[in-house]
Design a protein that fits this description.
single chain; 262 residues; mainly alpha; Arc Repressor Mutant, subunit A; Four Helix Bundle (Hemerythrin (Met), subunit A); 2 domains; two-stranded antiparallel sheet; 10 helices; 66% helix; 3% strand
């Protein structure tokens, strides 16, 4: 009898350690709910100190029972991502100390610890997002355009950097959703989450925000007009400008790390 983790050939002989298959673990409902809320927090779509929908509303949104929601919230509370508050104004709130509440030194340390990962994400984004913009121009619906415009307007009204980042992320996810391709949406979510720490360190200036706003508006116009070539071209410029700034942040972070060590 072969060892439990051995691989068998067609004739039943032990094929040795060439392959190792992991057992299948089906994600339970409360884990799925927790993961969806966790992603929204990581993407800054729910800000520190902001209340989650009520348990009843969450149960309706996810089409599950309240016990499932309660299990999910217990998981997130154990991770320090949310906190329960009692009383008339109680509920479940995103913990104050989360992505946007991190001290600058801690953000810098996190970025400095993964330069290769950030480099890879920047290259990946350069390939993916222009193609997504092209697809969005062909597949978008009126609802997609409305979501893009709402996010653009939200950026213009934002009174704080967390609000601005929330709407910036919402814009890129609305454009990804307009492709009608869930794999593209998932990929752009992952890229966004991986770059969020570095994006938080970008300069908060009117000139920076104005340029991003102009590029987003040009994207909306191209997608609304069904101009796939222009949408792709504008997104290439947008991503290149963002990448240049993010690479400057990464260089500055790494230089600071060297200075601290020397």
């Amino acid at each position: 009898m072969p060892a439990p983790d051995a691989v068998l050939t067609r004739n039943g002989r032990d094929a040795g350690p060439r392959l190792r298959f992991e057992p299948f673990h089906q994600q339970r409902a409360h884990e799925y709910v927790a993961e969806q809320i966790r992603r929204h927090i990581a993407l800054r779509l729910i800000k520190p100190g902001e209340a989650l929908p009520s348990e009843r509303d969450l149960a309706s949104i996810f089409a599950v029972g309240r016990p499932t929601i309660q299990q999910a919230l217990h998981l997130l509370e154990a991770e320090g991502l949310v906190e329960a508050r009692r009383g008339r104004s109680g509920g479940t709130f995103v913990s104050a100390v989360s992505q946007d509440g991190l001290p600058t030194d801690e953000l810098i340390a996190r970025v400095a610890a993964r330069p290769k990962d950030i480099e890879d994400l920047l290259t990946y984004r350069r390939i993916i997002e222009p193609a997504a913009a092209r697809a969005a121009a062909r597949m978008r619906t009126d609802a997609d355009l409305a979501a893009m415009r709402a996010a653009h307007e939200g950026m213009a009204r934002a009174g704080s950097e967390p609000d601005y980042m929330e709407n910036d992320t919402a814009f890129h996810l609305a454009l990804a959703r307009a492709t009608g391709n869930r794999y593209l949406l998932r990929t752009i979510e992952e890229i966004r989450m991986g770059l969020n720490d570095a994006m938080t360190l970008l300069p908060e200036t009117d000139a920076w925000h104005g340029r991003i706003g102009d590029e987003h508006l040009a994207l909306i116009e191209a997608v609304a007009g069904g101009d796939a070539d222009r949408a792709e071209r504008v997104m290439k410029v947008h991503v290149a400008n963002s990448e240049q700034s993010l690479r400057a942040v990464l260089r500055a972070v790494l230089r600071r790390g060297i200075e601290v060590m020397s």
